[in-house]
Amino acid sequence: MKTRSDFLTLELRDIRLSDLPSLESWGAAIDYARYMSRLSPFCFDGSLADQNRSFVWFAIVVDGRDSGTVWIERKPFQKDVGVLGILLARKSLFDRGIGRAAIRRAVTIARNALGVSSVRLHVRQTNLRAISCYRHCGFRITASAETTFPDGARIPFHRMELDLAAGVPRHASPSPAHEVELPRVSGK
Ligand SMILES: CC(C)(COP(=O)(O)OP(=O)(O)OC[C@H]1O[C@@H](n2cnc3c(N)ncnc32)[C@H](O)[C@@H]1OP(=O)(O)O)[C@@H](O)C(=O)NCCC(=O)NCCS
After folding, report:
1. How far does the centroid of ligand 1 lie from the alpha carbon of residue 102, in Å?
2. For the chain, which residues make up each domain, given as ranges?
3. What does pTM read for this prediction?
4. Ligand 1: which residue has its CA nearest to atom 31?
5. If pLDDT is split at 50, 70 and 90, which confidence band does 188 have?
6. Are strands 7-14 and 179-183 parallel, antiparallel or unpaired?
7. In the beta sheet, which residues pair with residue 31?
8. What is the CATH number that goes with domain 4-183?
9. Which residues line ligand 1 (CB under 6 A)?
């Protein structure tokens, strides 16, 4: 018989201004610049006044401990398109299905709160873990290109998109606490 200790609990809670100092330390803990260039939504200007209108933005809470962040923001000139960003704050959390569960929850909430009909992201082609996670959530590669960073580094990336017309992603049933349980060891 499975008991509660066989599961991780995962909850999304709205980001608060008091979380902002933690973002830098979450990012630093995984050397985030290797994977991504931002720790907050592009539209974030220091105010959360537009939270749940222009963007949804959460702390990912695993077994009661703040463990990363996920957001979806509306594209300014394509308001039915959401843009996703995510990071987990400890490498020990990677590859346990937490990312995909957090994304599924965030997508469901964003669809209802923001009215988006698709979600998009850009991912470096070297980030095979993230690409696999996104594929598990239903994202598909829709374009590939290369960008040049200010230091001259050339970074190939994919654009990936999730079309929500097909329905709510698997395991995404709404719950008021935004809480789901994941097997602690396997069975993602
Ligand atoms: C990307 C991220 C959110 C994914 O969350 P996660 O909980 O680790 O992902 P999941 O466990 O849901 O899925 C990871 C999948 O990648 C696979 N994977 C891991 N390393 C891999 C590699 N080198 N090559 C191919 N697949 C790989 C895992 O095996 C797993 O797939 P599986 O379940 O089919 O075995 C998380 O790893 C993270 O925060 N990474 C650092 C920041 C980052 O990259 N953010 C995204 C920027 S676009």
Report:
1. 12
2. 4-183
3. 0.91
4. 132
5. low
6. antiparallel
7. none
8. 3.40.630.30
9. 30, 35-36, 86-88, 94-100, 123, 127-130, 132-133, 136, 188
